[in-house]
Design brief:
Layout lengths: L9 H6 L4 E4 L11 E5 L2 E4 L1 H20 L4 E4 L6 H10 L5 E4 L11 H19 L1 H5 L3 H18 L12 E5 L5 H9 L4 E5 L13 E3 L5 H40 L5
Parallel strand pairs: 4-5, 4-6, 6-7, 7-8
Antiparallel strand pairs: 1-3, 2-3
Length: 262
Amino acid sequence: MSIRVEQISLMHLFSLGTHRGNRKSALNPKLKKKVYGVNKGLSVIDLVETKASLERSAKLLEKIGQKKGQLLVVGTSVHTKNIVEDFVSRVPNNQAAYVNHRWLGGTLTNWSTIRKTLKTLDKTKNMVKDKDFFSRLSRNEQLALNRKLVKLERFFNGLTVLKNNKPSAVIVLDAKDNPVAIREAEAMKIPVIAITNTNVDVLPEDLQYTIVCNTSSINCLKFIMEVLSDAYNEGVNKVNLTITTTQKEKNNQKQVRQPVVN
């Protein structure tokens, strides 16, 4: 069952601990409007603002889904890796690439090098899968090849489906951990959906897609990512429904035009 943003209550966001911010002294000045107040030295996040940002982000992804554009999801902290993989599994047809180990500088801005590395990854995979070739290698050569494959997959496996360095949007979980990803996306003029707590250092210039929440709450992050993936899929489904309806209308018109044979 898909989750629609307009159906989300502030009480539900509160129950997930979405409102819990970081220390007031660590608050990024750009986020003052997204903070309701302070309690015991901690910022209290304004859930009205959080819901509004989530709604804008969902609408953006629905539009991208209608065009079947690709997404790039970045989440490199220990507790976001599985959330990233879950998001990718919910988006159909390899339309979501991901980085869940460490963002390497130049992933978007130095695409020619990344593309070469992806070709190396594909070649290495084929060498390991080729049992006849692999069996002829010495024990040390086999170990070295396997180690190389593990390292390449750790950093680049999630990027193998990325068609180019211009995805339709970049979603960054816990923006504090991935400032370079935000800078590179903005340099490429790619919309950034930044999910962050209040103590972030680097933010997108355009804050309309910045979702401020308690990034230490796994349930909160899971919920937000489910909303975003459902929004993308809603866009895809609208296009598929339109295509199906149009095809049915054409078939009906053909049947009407067929002459009646006595």
